[in-house]
Design goal:
By secondary structure, the protein is α+β, with helices and mostly antiparallel strands. It is built from six helices and 14 strands. The protein has helices spanning about 125-145, 180-195, 210-220, 270-290, 345-350, 355-365; strands spanning about 10-15, 20-25, 75, 105-110, 150-155, 170-175, 230-235, 235-240, 250-255, 295-300, 325-330, 330-335, 340, 350-355. The strands form three sheets. The protein has a nine-stranded antiparallel beta sheet with strand order 3-4-6-5-10-11-9-8-7, sandwiched between helices. A three-stranded mixed beta sheet has the order 1-2-14, with no helix packed on it. Strands 12-13 form a two-stranded antiparallel ribbon. The termini are far apart.
């Protein structure tokens, strides 16, 4: 029997964050494709679109007029997925299997820039820092509202990901409950801290306990680059294709020097490094297939910002077990027009991928950080 080779033999990989597995089938990468192709994302958008609901001075779908903003702009979504309190009374349970829980909260839109034709990878670094500042402000504001239990910052980029407007923007949803995926991750982080001994030289979580993601990043940093999954590293953050990645070019951004629980815990240098790596990750994405690369991006951190004591210092609590990280989950697979579909086995059994995490990381490392639109012809 031949020895196992993860680059050629099918195998399962474990995701310790969600306690799930992914089936990896690297021998299928040469499978011919005669299925659906996607239209190319437009790359010739105007700087200002008079019919865009998000451009400065334009009227939104709900009738409100946008301010003539020059940096970021935040407003409540005109078609919010959740509504502000007070919510309805909890309905009686007709059967234990048919429960319903009323939810309240808010949905904010964060416009990145007044220019209609830009996006994270084509913005100046100072503009990306402004976005990080805005995310932090909304997280702090929404996270201190009565009844709110969770704040999620995310971006859908590209029509392929269901984005209804190409103007550069993200969203922040605030809910009166903790959603399923972050709840799973927090439970895994707490469980790991309770049963794992701290290894020498590895950053630790609160009270010196082991942190699953601190341990994971520490290991990834020890793997030789040509064998590993790290794509980019700066002074404070790494961007890598996780061992358990499901989407073809999935990436995570994580701090590697210390345990950071939320955006509000950044130092000035860490905020700059975070903006830097977000910019560099998205440039490499666009350069894979020389297109505006679609993705879903989400920041996972403490469910709510920490409270301050009488001296203005942040008070540590159980939620500091959260280790801030960013998920990038893009659907494109073989080209700018061929995407991965969630179907068949993946819907009925478990996630599956063909390209290994190591192969994807190598492809991404080989991409330039000079955006293809700015490369001299």
């Amino acid at each position: 029997m031949e020895p196992f080779n993860p680059s050629t033999h099918p195998h399962r990989r474990y995701n310790p964050l969600t306690n799930t597995h992914v089936l990896v089938s690297p021998h299928r990468t040469k499978r011919p494709w005669l299925g659906q192709t996607e239209p190319a994302e437009p790359s010739n958008l105007p700087q200002y679109d008079p019919v865009c609901y998000l451009c400065p001075g334009n009227t939104r779908a709900g009738g409100e007029v946008n301010e003539m903003y020059t940096s970021t702009m935040v407003f409540e979504n005109d078609y919010a997925a959740v509504l502000p309190p007070p919510g309805p009374i909890t309905p009686p349970v007709a059967h234990p299997l048919l429960t319903a829980e009323p939810i309240h909260g808010g949905c904010d839109v964060v416009c990145f820039h007044p220019r209609h034709d830009l996006s994270l990878p084509t913005l100046f670094l100072s503009d990306v820092e402004n976005i990080v500042d805005e995310w932090t402000r909304v997280y702090m504001r929404r996270g201190t509202e009565p009844g709110i239990e969770y704040v999620q910052i995310f971006e859908n980029k590209g029509a392929m990901m269901g984005c209804s407007n190409p103007h550069p923007h993200s969203q922040v949803w605030s809910l009166s409950t903790l959603p399923t995926l972050p709840a799973k991750e927090l439970a895994s982080l707490r469980n790991y801290a309770s049963i794992t001994r701290v290894r020498s030289g590895v950053p630790t979580g609160p009270d010196g306990h082991a942190c699953l993601l601190c341990e994971y990043v520490h290991h990834e940093l020890s793997v030789p680059e040509d064998e590993g999954r790290i794509v980019i590293k700066n002074e404070h953050f790494v961007a890598l294709v996780p061992w358990w990645a499901y989407w073809p070019f999935e990436m995570m951004v994580l701090p590697h020097k210390r345990h950071i629980s939320s955006l509000v815990h950044f130092t000035v240098d860490e905020k700059h490094a975070f903006a830097d790596i977000m910019s560099r990750v998205t440039k490499r994405y666009d350069n894979i297939f020389s297109c505006s690369f679609a993705y879903a991006m989400g920041i996972h951190q403490r469910p709510l910002p920490p409270r301050r004591d009488d001296n203005g210092m942040y008070v540590q609590d159980a939620d500091d077990i959260a280790h801030l990280h960013v998920h990038f989950e893009p659907p494109l697979l073989r080209s700018a027009s061929v995407r991965k579909f969630l179907a068949g086995f993946e819907v009925m059994a478990e996630p599956q991928r063909d390209l290994t995490a190591e192969q994807a990381a190598k492809r991404l490392r080989n991409c330039s950080e000079v955006h293809y639109l700015f490369t001299a012809v």
